[in-house]
Design goal:
The chain has 414 residues and is an alpha/beta fold. Keywords: Iron, Iron-sulfur, Metal-binding, S-adenosyl-L-methionine.
Length: 414
């Protein structure tokens, strides 16, 4: 490998890291260095932009330790047989880069992933050393997210959890068949085993913190994973079921979806073009339906068409409501929270406001309009003090009334 300076390495390894989607920093403990001790913070505004649940923008230095890899996964730009320019950081270079970017107020934390070099254990050792040095040698209090390696020694993964806020293990593809076909060197059993071990360590860490204040924190922001969409034949229904299983079995904080992107010198078994980006967006919406709106995976999957795909022209919650019109309209002044969560166009904050306001008075349609972006989308599915919709069960044109309008965009519009 040719000798490269730090700037050249950064250009290569920051670009190579763009395929990792799972870099949100929500859920971790709040830390700062306002007392004059240490450096860094997990709070406030801070080259990857992630958003916390309260809307804060967190800037992360998002890089690979190296884009060299001993594996040859068909879908990966950094696979062993790929004709790309290679680079590698030392652990100390990553540490110094992180501190330098933080001191310039460019970032609030680090997202570090890597190709596999030499062995899984050796690679994991280098990543752990980055986190250890930042925490112990430089007292860095900012956010750290490490991508862990399923085949690495569990002791190394445990050491990573003692220094990082969040750990993640990529499930790679939605189905075992897809993984066996496109990444035969990886194993569903090993990935699931590593996720299970990580969940157990996180649970044990939480229990220890409840009993002993001095117990060390272990990955306080939990674990996440990422799956590639569109590289194999898995449909949206299968992806939704896979994500639901990951949440239930391993207590995932997030499942991230990354639309497959065609790569140079691609294998003949890969698709020739990427899936619509809207498909990725619809999967994230379906994910939110399960996490925040009380939908089961089978219910979300019911919004798919005959081929198991979510519609691209409307969000899955609306598609579900159009299929199950018999449970609508919902009385905004009487319905329980569970029923309101299923009304298209009503978000969790709007529903919380409705539940509070209706304790003191009966709500009218104009009250709901102030809480939602589009009252036209909501109106056919609810009853208010001054509003009762007609023909909700049998209106064949209901989709035309509530689905987003398709507009021709103007090239030179102001």
């Amino acid at each position: 490998m040719a000798q490269l300076d730090t700037k050249a390495k950064l250009a290569i390894l920051a670009d190579a890291a763009k395929y990792d989607a799972s870099c949100a920093s929500s859920g971790t403990a709040k830390r700062n260095s306002r007392d004059g001790k240490g450096i860094g913070s997990t709070e406030g505004m801070g080259i990857c932009h992630a958003y916390a649940p309260d809307g804060r923008c967190i800037s992360l230095l998002k890089i690979l330790l190296t884009n060299s890899c001993i594996f040859d996964c068909h879908y990966c730009i950094n696979r062993k047989s790929s004709n790309v320019r290679r680079a590698r950081f030392t652990a100390e270079e990553v540490v110094q880069l992180t501190l330098a970017f933080y001191r310039r107020n460019y970032i609030e934390g680090l997202f570090l992933s890597s190709g596999i070099i030499s062995s899984s254990d050796y690679t994991m050792e280098q990543m752990v050393e980055v986190a250890r040095s930042l925490r112990e040698d430089h007292h860095f209090r900012g956010y750290i997210h490490l991508k862990t390696i399923p085949d690495a020694d569990p002791a190394l993964v445990h050491a990573a959890g003692l220094h990082a806020d969040r750990l993640s293990i990529n499930v790679e593809l939605p189905t075992a068949h897809g993984l066996a076909r496109l990444a035969p060197e990886k194993s569903v059993v090993r990935i699931a085993g590593a996720m299970g071990d990580l969940k157990e360590s996180i649970d044990e860490g939480h229990d220890a913190r409840k009993r002993f204040r001095s117990a060390p924190k272990f990955a306080p922001a939990g674990q996440s994973t990422q799956m590639i969409v569109g590289a194999d034949s898995a449909n949206d229904g299968e992806i939704i079921a896979s994500a639901s299983g990951l949440y239930d079995r391993f207590g995932m904080r997030r499942v991230y979806y990354s639309a497959f992107s065609p790569i140079p010198d691609a294998s003949a078994i890969l698709p020739l073009k990427r899936p619509p980006l809207m498909r990725e967006h619809r999967l994230y919406q379906s994910d939110w339906m399960m996490r925040f709106y009380g939908f089961k995976a089978a219910e979300v999957a019911a919004a798919t068409d005959a081929s198991g795909m979510l519609p691209l022209d409307m969000d899955p919650k609306l598609a579900w409501a159009l299929k199950f019109r018999d449970i609508f309209p919902v009385d905004i002044n009487r319905a329980p929270k569970e029923a309101l969560l299923r009304v298209p166009g009503l978000g969790t904050k709007a529903i919380a406001a409705i539940l509070t306001a209706r304790r003191v008075r009966r709500l009218r349609l104009e009250d709901v309009a102030r809480l939602t972006v589009s009252i036209a989308k909501v109106r056919p599915f609810l009853i208010a003090a001054d509003w009762t919709p007609a023909r909700i069960d049998g209106a064949v044109d209901l989709k035309a009334l509530v689905a987003p309008k398709v507009e021709q965009m103007e090239l030179f519009a102001a």
